[in-house]
Amino acid sequence: MYPRFTMIGQSFGSVYFSWKALCKFTPLYYLDTSGYAFTYPVARMFGCKVICYTHYPTISLDMLSRVHAQNSMYNNDAFIAKSVLLSWCKVIYYMIFSWMYGIVGSCAHLAMVNSSWTQSHIEKLWRIPARIKRIYPPCDTSRLQVLPLERSMQPPKIISVSQFRPEKAHPLQLEAFAVALKNLDADLPRPKLQVVGSCRNDADEKRLQHLRDLASELKVDDDVEFHKNVSYSELVKLLGSAAAGIHSMVDEHFGISVVEYMASGAIPIAHNSAGPKMDIILPEGGKQTGFLAQSMQEYADAILKIIRMPEPERLEMAAAARRRAVRFSEQRFSEDFKAAIRPILFHTSR
């Protein structure tokens, strides 16, 4: 509701909100899963044991470096990026906020994080490495792992699953897909790109329309299907027919959609950063589990590699990716979560 000083406004608002809540009822354990670290000192003042599960740092060193370099991105609009003075003001604001964020975050008795990328940032900001545990988030892989690995390649289908938000970088996917079509061998079937997402508001609707216009401009509108706000059963059906899944968000802290691709049997093509790079698309039993890409050409090359891949090789990679996805199951999360919090519960009970 307020486009400027959003982080500090939400953080101070959370302090007031938590104070009101804790005055009404003071628990023994204060468990935060929404990332409002500024509430931790308040909870400790009330005598609570503070436990958190952090999906994404409120501010990261990457965000600070982008503002310093005057790069226009989702956390730094073009108006500020074009101005040296405004950029320096925002750098100072970010530095002060990161210092405050480090102080309040260090009040956690136990900080669970969802990925190696998040862990590295939280360790640098909060400076409590002994109290930080990496617990991968729960992914509903069981219902996807029953899908057959064999897929029809007439035509091969590539799926993209995410909300229609600016940080998801959908235009890059369309541009890479257009390049792949231009370089497609004449004897190979023409692939289809299925873009699946949800629209929360008018801004998302406008972004979706922009993607439709871009597909038309790139002359691939006959090869791209847009699916908005589909049900879970429809999503499973789409995943079950996809040969590959594409993901393009820079510094995605984890990447649940990438795990869903792998569990369903769709070979992932994900951005070469953060969660997909550090935790998800890693070899399994010595076998490759997917592709990492950064530039438009790298994405296009990965699409063509999957389409050109012999069926036995594709099935082998899809099977390895599915085995990798088991590491991020709901059962694994439950076991790791309980193991992490058990020392806090045991120590308090004594």
Automatic annotation (TrEMBL):
Keywords: Endoplasmic reticulum, Glycosyltransferase, Membrane, Transferase, Transmembrane, Transmembrane helix. SUPFAM superfamilies: UDP-Glycosyltransferase/glycogen phosphorylase (SSF53756). Pathway: Protein modification; protein glycosylation. This is GDP-Man:Man(3)GlcNAc(2)-PP-Dol alpha-1,2-mannosyltransferase. Gene3D superfamilies: Glycogen Phosphorylase B. GDP-Man:Man(3)GlcNAc(2)-PP-Dol alpha-1,2-mannosyltransferase that operates in the biosynthetic pathway of dolichol-linked oligosaccharides, the glycan precursors employed in protein asparagine (N)-glycosylation. The assembly of dolichol-linked oligosaccharides begins on the cytosolic side of the endoplasmic reticulum membrane and finishes in its lumen. The sequential addition of sugars to dolichol pyrophosphate produces dolichol-linked oligosaccharides containing fourteen sugars, including two GlcNAcs, nine mannoses and three glucoses. It holds the Pfam family Glycos_transf_1. Its main location: endoplasmic reticulum. It is an enzyme of class 2 (transferase). Residues 153-323 form the Glycosyl transferase family domain. Residues 1-126 form the ALG11 mannosyltransferase N-terminal domain. Belongs to the glycosyltransferase group 1 family. Glycosyltransferase 4 subfamily. GO terms for molecular function: GDP-Man:Man(3)GlcNAc(2)-PP-Dol alpha-1,2-mannosyltransferase activity. It is found in: Endoplasmic reticulum membrane. It catalyses: an alpha-D-Man-(1->3)-[alpha-D-Man-(1->6)]-beta-D-Man-(1->4)-beta-D-GlcNAc-(1->4)-alpha-D-GlcNAc-diphospho-di-trans,poly-cis-dolichol + 2 GDP-alpha-D-mannose = an alpha-D-Man-(1->2)-alpha-D-Man-(1->2)-alpha-D-Man-(1->3)-[alpha-D-Man-(1->6)]-beta-D-Man-(1->4)-beta-D-GlcNAc-(1->4)-alpha-D-GlcNAc-diphospho-di-trans,poly-cis-dolichol + 2 GDP + 2 H(+). GO terms for cellular component: endoplasmic reticulum membrane. CDD domains: GT4_ALG11-like. PANTHER family: GDP-MAN:MAN(3)GLCNAC(2)-PP-DOL ALPHA-1,2-MANNOSYLTRANSFERASE. The chain crosses the membrane at residues 91-112. Its EC number is 2.4.1.131.
